[in-house]
Amino acid sequence: MKSVRRINIIGVAVACALALVALVGPVRAKVAERSRMVAQHRSALLSLAEQQKVEDRLARAQKEIESLSTSIVELHRSFPPRKELDSFLSELQGLARSSRADLVRVVPGDSRQGDVYSTVRVHVEARAAFDDFYRFLWGLDRMTRLSQVESLRISRDGTSDACTIQVTLCIFVSAQGELT
User: Residues 10-29: pLDDT tens digits?
Assistant: First the structure.
């Protein structure tokens, strides 16, 4: 009887072991499936993170391009091509009018060719009261186009408040602009 009992206990133990193995097999498969899904999820998250980094770099590059485009526009205003010299002369005439200076003569002079920019001299003669002449010079300084006063001569006209002004301006223009 003891041996039958022992056999029964061994049989129950074997049955339990087989049941446990039968249960462990699907659990292992589920654990393996979950591990595979976690790995895929991690991979997708890493891929998403990399994609976000690329998108961030692209956004920064677009902002930099916009900034450079704005800088190019400002540079073109400061160094326009020589073919736009007539627009400067019109702007100069408007400035003279607004500062109550009478332009007597405006003569574009010689030009100097450089690698990046060129210069064009413009000789201006005007008549104005001294205060109006000051407004004219202040307006020249505030223009968007780069210019430099190379020479300045002010002479008083007799006993009146009027002055004759002779200014030689050096206007900077793009070296790639057309020379007319």
Answer: 777 777 766 666 766 677 77
Pairing of strands 162-174, 117-129: antiparallel
Q: Give start and end residues of each alpha helix (H) in the chain.
A: 2-78, 85-98, 130-142
Q: What is the pTM of this model?
A: 0.50
At 59-100, the pLDDT tens digits run 888 888 887 777 666 655 554 555 567 777 888 888 889 999
Q: Among residues 27, 62, 78, which one ends one of the domains?
A: 78
Alpha-carbon distance of 163 to 55, in angstroms, equals: 63
Instruction: State the residue range of the domain holding 36.
Output: 1-78
User: Considering the domain boundaries, does residue 122 fall inside one?
Assistant: yes
Q: What is the C-alpha separation between 31 and 28, in angstroms, rounded?
A: 5
Out of 78, 110, 132, pick the residue that ends a domain. Answer: 78
